[in-house]
Write a structure and sequence with these properties.
The chain is an alpha+beta fold and about 800 residues long. It is about 50% helix and about 10% strand. The longest helix is centred in the C-terminal third of the chain and has 32 residues.
């Protein structure tokens, strides 16, 4: 007979409210701890790491400022005490993202795209190993000044013997005529030995000469001269990096800004002229070279017939004729990427030191012309105290898309990606709240920037889902990636329970087709290093492959985890190790950090805060563990979970459900297993949990070594009344099975127990059985409604039997058990 599933959960701890009330009366700085169990944060609970970080930021902001280099990622949930409108807005954003992620995962399961849940989580696990919270790693900085992670050292540099080169020395430098081809090495040695080693800042003109010489050096026909030219370019690259290391932007910002703003022109067949500096010139010139067609013309811009190079410093020396236009196309692009790499390194170092030095009020610092990062001065435009997206930023996005589609070398794509990541990080910093009373407002600049990127990818003539995934994978900002992948998932996923990947009118109308064939980017038939730009009209129909869909899902899950800082929860859900280890390590680390920030609070307040903090974090950890697993298995109709276990055996039970009816049988079965002879062991079997029931498959083993044999058995879902993870032996999964009711027996209930590899595996089996109960309850409800409609709105409802699944953790079960005792 049909039975209806009832999922039992433990109610909230009534003792928490009193503790929170007591904390509220202490100090206002504890407000973020007291709000952790509010109605809003129960639905969206923060992580343990967020609780600790927020406590430190409130109690000791100076120490947090000095340690910001260890964690400078923008956190949307950094302060729970916000205005109602911003809090609801942030809550809706997170709920929408969570629903979309659940639907996408459920879609993949219903259509058997993933073999099991572990395959999906392994993909996320590989990505979670990357650290986006370190400034150096997030910005992909290869080498940074020593003062980047030491603010005191940064201030001490001003008192050292670093000074600007005097104008007379600079004039003497130009008078030595280092610009002839046979004196390149003398120029390099002069800058390195007489300026960098003596800690004399070379000046803007000398640094510009270093960059312009990369364009000026020519390749001769002899092999030895070619090698010398390559070595010279490499030495010039090293000289510029040594200048950045010796003279950081925090002390010489105005000089570096002048370097970026000085007019720089290259006029010729590829018309590139700008008054906004060398960075704009390099980007415009690279865009022209990329869009050149096979006939040597530009695909979009008008052809110019002049053949004059106007280098700022070379013109001052009377050398206006340069050989840059005589270089082949590949050589020009190589030279431009070398210069771009150096300029991007300059911008990265400056932004990294900006995030370290200006912890608070970053928006005001960006609005101020004297303190804003160099990337804002070079790329962004300020309109009514609000940053606006410029055409040069759109060109960077378009170049990144075209380079990915045309299969440019990865190291070249990485340079443009680093530049765009600087734009993303600047937008995040600009929207960071000025105080602790509001959430970051990411619906303004970052949201607009993400839509610009999405439209640029979608309108590209090379557009396909593989291209979208490749471009998104190069973006390191979690928020921008989450917005992009969310929009794309909304296009390819119909967010309701009826969605399937099969062909339907929805896809036919959208001209989207599902296939399982492999797909790739544009093929480079001629194997060129920098393929030419082909202008072709491509039909706006595209294909979604299995691999592309999984990668899109992985990118969204990755950005979701990093942006909302729920890495610990995902790691616990997919880890095969004991879940107590990360919890204990986090608590130990959190206690040490909390103690180090409570210097100004008296001992009584310190002890009280410590107790409340430990209790709240323990409750939050258990809630997150439970809710995340349920979120993962929710709405999965056709799943299968297989686990290799040891079968303990079965015993009669006195009740239909409840931990009190499984505890004594499990104790007895474990005692029997411990007292087995040395030559006997428990039999191995495969425990399979499906929506239609639980199956046991016997594994081949020696009869002499097993204590007894177990036959393959199947228990339908309507014969299982209860499932739980044992509270004493946490690796044991137990369930109560109801025997055939037609056979009247004294003990109609039977407990079956299984030993899992780990505690986490036993908990997964519990959640899987809960999902089966939920799916069975849905099927029963649909059958009742169908029967009701077929019998003219009247029918006799059969006897409804209840069964339950206990989703509480062993700690919660033990606490209730002790209370009842």
């Amino acid at each position: 007979m049909p039975r209806k599933a009832i999922i039992k959960r433990k109610s909230d701890n009534p003792g928490e409210s009193s503790l929170q009330t007591e904390v509220k009366s202490k100090k206002r700085c504890f407000s973020n701890l007291t709000n952790l169990n509010s109605d809003e944060n129960i639905n969206n609970p923060p992580t343990i790491k967020q609780v600790t970080t927020n406590t430190e930021a409130l109690l000791n902001p100076e120490e947090t400022k000095s340690n910001l280099h260890q964690d400078v990622e923008i956190k949307p949930l950094s302060s729970p005490s916000q205005t109602p409108n911003s809090a609801c807005q942030m809550r809706r954003r997170r709920e929408d993202s969570t629903v979309l992620l659940k639907k996408a995962i459920a879609t993949s399961f219903r259509n058997k795209i993933l073999e099991n849940s572990i395959l999906m989580m392994k993909k996320i696990r590989k990505v979670l190993e990357l650290n986006f919270k370190n400034t150096k790693n997030r910005l992909q900085i290869v080498s940074t000044p020593q003062c980047l992670y030491n603010i005191k050292q940064c201030h001490q540099n001003r008192s050292l013997n670093t000074k600007l080169t005097e104008s007379s020395v600079e004039n003497q430098f130009f008078a030595k005529n280092f610009f002839s081809e046979d004196r390149h090495y003398q120029f390099i040695l002069y800058v390195r030995n007489n300026m960098c080693n003596k800690r004399e800042f070379p000046g803007v003109n000398v640094i510009r000469c270093v960059l312009e010489m990369i364009f000026k050096i020519t390749n001769n026909e002899t092999q030895n001269s070619v090698i010398t030219t390559q070595q010279t370019i490499r030495e010039l690259h090293n000289v510029f990096n040594s200048i950045l290391q010796t003279f950081p932007t925090c002390n010489f910002r105005s000089s570096y800004l002048e370097l970026l703003k000085t007019p720089f022109q290259i006029n010729g067949v590829l018309m590139t002229s700008t008054e906004r500096g060398i960075l704009h010139s390099m980007l415009n010139l690279l865009s022209d070279l990329m869009e050149m067609t096979e006939d040597g013309k530009n695909s979009q811009k008008q052809i110019k017939t002049e053949n004059i190079n106007n280098f700022y410093c070379w013109e001052a020396q009377g050398e206006q004729n340069s050989s840059f236009n005589n270089f082949p196309r590949n050589e020009k692009i190589d030279r431009i990427f070398i210069v771009l790499d150096l300029l991007v390194s300059l911008l990265e170092n400056d932004l990294a030191m900006f995030t370290v030095k200006f912890v608070k009020n970053s928006r005001k610092r960006i609005d101020c012309i004297e303190t804003r990062p160099l990337v804002c001065s070079a790329l962004w435009e300020t309109y009514e105290r609000v940053l606006s997206i410029t055409q040069i930023i759109k060109n960077i996005i378009q170049m990144m898309i075209n380079m990915t589609a045309l299969n440019y070398p990865k190291n070249k794509i990485e340079i443009i990606s680093r530049l765009f990541n600087l734009v993303c990080q600047t937008s995040n910093l600009y929207e960071y709240p000025e105080g602790n009373s509001a959430y970051p407002i990411f619906d303004t600049l970052t949201n607009v920037l993400s839509h610009v990127v999405f439209n640029a990818i979608e309108n590209s003539i090379f557009f396909n889902l593989n291209l979208f995934n490749e471009v998104t994978d190069n973006i390191k900002s979690p928020l921008v990636r989450m917005i992009l992948t969310k929009h794309m998932l909304s296009k390819v996923t119909k967010c309701d329970e009826q969605f399937s990947l099969a062909s339907s009118s929805h896809y036919l109308n959208s001209q989207i087709f599902m296939t399982f064939e492999s797909a790739s980017l544009v093929e480079n038939k001629n194997l060129q290093k920098y393929p030419l730009y082909h202008v072709e009209e491509v039909e706006k129909t595209w294909t979604i492959t299995k691999d592309n869909f999984l990668k899109l899902l992985r990118l969204f899950a990755e950005s979701f985890v990093n942006f909302y800082c729920i890495r610990e929860v995902i790691d616990e859900m997919k880890s095969d190790n004991n879940v107590e280890s990360p919890q204990n390590s986090n608590e130990k680390h959190s206690i040490i950090q909390t103690n180090s920030t409570l210097n100004e609070i008296n001992l009584q307040e310190k002890v009280q805060l410590r107790k409340i903090d430990l209790r709240l974090r323990k409750q939050i950890h258990m809630n997150l563990s439970r809710d995340t697993c349920m979120f993962y298995y929710n709405e999965i109709k056709n799943f299968m979970m297989l686990s290799k276990v040891k079968y303990l055996g079965s015993l009669h039970s006195k009740g239909l459900w409840g931990i009190k009816h499984t505890r004594r049988p499990v104790d007895h079965l474990v005692t029997v297993a411990k007292n087995l002879p040395p030559n006997k062991s428990l039999p191995f079997c495969n425990l399979i949990v499906k929506t239609d029931g639980v199956h046991i498959e016997t594994l081949p083993s020696s009869s002499a070594s097993s204590s007894y044999s177990v036959s393959s058995t199947r228990w339908p879902i309507d014969t299982i009344s209860y499932g739980v993870q044992d509270l004493v032996y946490t690796r044991v999964f137990a369930m109560i099975v109801v025997k055939d009711e037609q056979v009247k027996q004294e003990h109609p209930f039977e407990v079956h127990a299984f030993v899992c590899d780990s505690r986490a595996m036993a908990r997964r089996l519990t959640y899987a059985l809960a999902a089966s109960f939920q799916e069975y309850s849905r099927r029963v409800k649909e059958a009742e409604e169908s029967n009701y409609n077929n019998n003219n709105n009247t029918f006799d409802s059969p006897l409804k039997r209840k069964f339950a699944i206990d989703l509480r953790s062993p700690e919660e079960l033990l606490q209730e058990h002790e209370t009842e005792a």
